[in-house]
Amino acid sequence: MSIADVVIASGEVVNELPFPTWVYGVVFLVGFFALAMVTYSYRNVANRHRHKSGGADQSHAGHH
Fold it and tell me: Out of 17, 19, 54, 56, which could bridge 23 as a Cys pair, Cβ 3.0 to 4.6 Å?
């Protein structure tokens, strides 16, 4: 077999996907939305726990 025969034969192989293509998009969007919700849940955490930081607020009083 020559290299040309191998290249031609490899072009005939079809890899079937286990799911339809739209399922991969839905899985991606659900995963992305879940990660976005995890990220969103950490918003404003520093302000909710300000009483635990103690002296850190005084040392950064002039900064925003």
Answer: 19
